[in-house]
Design goal:
The complex is a heterodimer of chains A (about 400) and B (about 80). Chain A is built from 13 helices and 14 strands. Chain A is globular. Chain A has two domains: about 5-240, Thiolase/Chalcone synthase (Peroxisomal Thiolase, Chain A, domain 1); about 250-400, Peroxisomal Thiolase, Chain A, domain 1, CATH 3.40.47. In chain A, the strands form three sheets. A ten-stranded mixed beta sheet of chain A has the order 5-4-6-7-1-8-14-13-9-10, with helices on both faces. In chain A, a hairpin with a 3-residue loop joins β13 (about 380-385) and β14 (about 390-400). Chain A is an alpha/beta fold and about 400 residues long. With about 80 residues, chain B is an all-alpha fold. Chain B has one domain (about 5-85): Orthogonal Bundle (Non-ribosomal Peptide Synthetase Peptidyl Carrier Protein, Chain A), CATH 1.10.1200.10. Helix content of chain B is about 55%, strand content about 0%. Chain B has four helices and no strands. Chain B is globular, with a radius of gyration of 12 Å. The relative contact order of chain B is 0.19. Classes of the chains: A alpha/beta (about 400), B mainly alpha (about 80). The interface of A and B includes residues 45, 217 and 219 of A.
């Protein structure tokens, strides 16, 4: 079977405008959650989030580009550009290079602005490019156009598992021989009035900050941003002497077929076991798990129970952290940004911490790397994503 | 209609029961309302009484809004209406 490696990574997220800055923030245990700065904040009960701060689109794009790029597309293009630059000459045959991106909301900011214009401001006209801006595949399509990637291109929307599903599909596309190189990851820009108002309704949002696995947690906090990776067929990457960041060793996706919002332990167990099996690994091989770790009581307890079930006695040895405590929940881009923490563990031996942790929860009795980063030699990792809708997607990475 | 009559009607609607089947001593469990049913019920209460109910589904027991029985919910709504009048 063809093997797949990562040869480039790029990001813009609340922790930094590049991979290096993001890794530095993760080492320091920096929390990017703070007061939101968006229009109509006074009408929201949720006042906090992890925004990409001090971001000026005109620093990155021309006016004519920006008339076509929603905020989530901008984030995706910035991350893709960094990833391709790091990968070097990965794209030899553009017909054999494609894109698969994850996003949950797509061009939600464009929708929000346009609805405000017609419903609230009473305007009878919206910008002519509303449709191409808001469509969920806009980011992936602009990535293909910007870099001339003419192979398979599609977008996956599976709520909080979108980018893990996307990267799993990129792996499958290369393994099956449909392409040799895939740009993949996720992008999300949901921190607009409507995006937050909708989440507010579920009453699972934290008022203070995000405290995964802490007994005093009050819920999740939204983030925004993107991370994009260059996935490349291993032999071709080796032949051109590319620097390999990690091998994408396995992937598994399962459905709870249960509740539309409540997670199910068995679905998570089957996804983790499937990823291990696909990678030819055993639980004892795994040194680090990047948890889904939303900071809701329901997720955290179910996820910890699932890890204990999969790992058995070695559950006490594996390190597990939720970096959502630092960069917030990036929804459709969550798994992509969290894969950066996996690369940090594999390549630098640094385990990004679960910050804001105050009180141990007996239902989350695992080594959750509380508050301070730790050093550990890690050869293989899992990255979990468990979405509303009962959709679970787990990636397994190994050190190159 | 009194506040308790209106709250009972909302609870009955969401529990798919007749209002005569709902007593002040009923609990969410005895009414068959799960966590999603509760979140919808609270939304309906907010809309009906034009109040904001402080309730976090992550930690229902820690919320200022006591949902342990129909009686406690009615009392909490009465309190909120006084506070937010």
């Amino acid at each position: 079977m063809r093997r797949v490696v990562i040869t480039g990574a790029g990001t813009i997220n609340p922790l930094g405008y590049a991979v290096g800055a993001t890794h530095a923030a993760m080492r320091q245990g920096h929390c990017a959650i703070g007061p939101l700065d968006i229009p109509d904040l006074d009408r929201l009960q949720i006042q906090i989030g992890a925004q990409v701060r001090d971001y000026d689109p005109t620093d990155h794009f021309t006016k004519s580009q920006l008339s076509l790029y929603d905020r989530f597309t901008q984030f995706a293009l910035i991350a893709a550009d960094q990833a391709l630059r790091q990968a070097g000459q990965a794209v030899v045959d553009p017909d054999r290079a494609g894109v698969v991106m994850g996003t949950s909301g797509g061009g939600l900011t464009t929708q929000d602005d346009s609805y405000r214009a017609v419903y609230q401001d009473g305007k009878d006209r919206v910008h002519p490019f509303v449709v191409p801006r808001l469509m969920a595949n806009a980011a992936a399509s602009h990535m293909s156009m910007t870099h001339g990637l003419r192979g398979p291109n599609f977008t996956i929307s599976t709520a909080c598992a979108s980018s893990n599903h996307a990267m799993g599909q990129a792996l499958a596309v290369i393994r099956s021989g449909q392409a040799d190189v895939m740009l993949t990851g996720g992008a999300e820009a949901m921190l607009c009035f409507g995006g937050i108002k909708a989440w507010e309704g579920l009453r699972v949002m934290a008022r203070d900050t995000c405290r995964p696995f802490s007994a005093d947690r009050t819920g999740m906090v939204q983030g925004e941003g993107a991370a994009v990776f260059v996935f490349e067929e291993r032999e071709k990457a080796l032949a051109r002497g590319a620097h390999i960041l990690a091998e994408v060793a396995g992937f598994s996706a399962t459905s709870d077929a249960g509740d539309i919002v409540s997670p199910d332990c068995d679905g998570a167990v089957r996804a983790m076991c499937g990823a291990l099996r696909d990678a030819g690994l055993t639980p004892a091989d795994i040194g680090y798990i990047n948890a889904h770790g939303t900071g809701t009581a329901m997720n955290d307890r179910t996820e910890c129970a699932a890890v204990r079930k999969v790992f058995g006695v070695s559950a006490d040895d594996v390190l597990i952290s939720s970096t959502k405590s630092m960069h917030g929940h990036l929804i459709g881009a969550a798994g992509a940004v969290e894969l950066l923490a996996c690369l940090l563990a594999l390549n630098d031996g640094i385990i990004a911490p679960t910050v804001n942790h105050r009180i141990a929860d007996p239902d989350c009795a695992l080594d959750i790397v509380a508050n301070t980063a730790r050093t550990a030699k890690v050869d293989a990792v899992l990255s979990n994503a468990f979405a509303f809708g009962g959709l679970n997607a787990v990636l397994a990475l190994t050190r190159a | 209609m009194t506040i308790s009559d209106r709250v009972i009607r909302i609870l009955a609607d969401h529990a798919l029961l007749d209002t005569s089947d709902v007593t002040m001593d009923d609990t969410l469990e005895s009414l068959g309302l799960d966590s999603m049913g509760l979140v919808e019920t609270i939304f309906a209460i907010e809309e009906a009484f034009d109040i904001t109910v402080p309730f976090n589904a992550n930690a229902p027991q820690d919320s200022a809004f006591d949902v342990s029985s129909v009686r406690s919910i009615v009392a909490a709504v009465e309190d909120l209406m006084k506070q937010q009048a």
